[in-house]
Amino acid sequence: MIYNRGQVKTHLNPHELVQLAKEVLSQGNGFRFCAYGNSMMPFLKDGDIITLKPNRQNKRQVGEVVAFLQPKNNTLAVHRVLKVMDNCCILKGDNNENIDGEIPNSAIIGIVTRIDRKGQAVYFGFGLERFVIALLSQLGWLQKISNLLGANQ
Fold first, then answer.
1. Comparing C-alpha atoms, which of 49, 53, 86, 85 is closest to residue 67?
2. CATH number of the domain residue 73 falls in
3. What is the DSSP letter of 127?
4. S-S: 91 plus which of 100, 113, 139, 153, CB 3.0-4.6 Å?
5. Which pLDDT tens digit goes with each residue over 32-87?
6. Is residue 106 part of a domain?
């Protein structure tokens, strides 16, 4: 699902969403769409509006939240960078138990620059705290802490 400036909703299948996102981002424009799923809870929730900027440089930073094409089905996912290597990154959803594996830099199509929830910008998770969040996620503690605090509800 995507949203334009007039908040008109358009439903797209996952492959149409990928094609549109790639086209818009390849022209240097930002891209907004509605998140679905709970893999990034509690920092990104189902129904949040995500804004991406193009992946201009192939060098990512630990803690960044990126949009990438999943190798198994070529659909769009948004997860956090846990480790940066020469030609790939290790990514993981904050609420997932397992990592996504080595994702080639070429599969990362955008960087999350903004999240809007119920009309308000969400900032937590994008500042310096992103390094701590990435570490907790890598150690498998983030999901446990979230569950204890009831943040996954």
1. 53
2. 2.10.109.10
3. S
4. 100
5. 999 999 899 888 899 999 999 998 876 789 999 999 999 899 999 999 999 999 99
6. yes
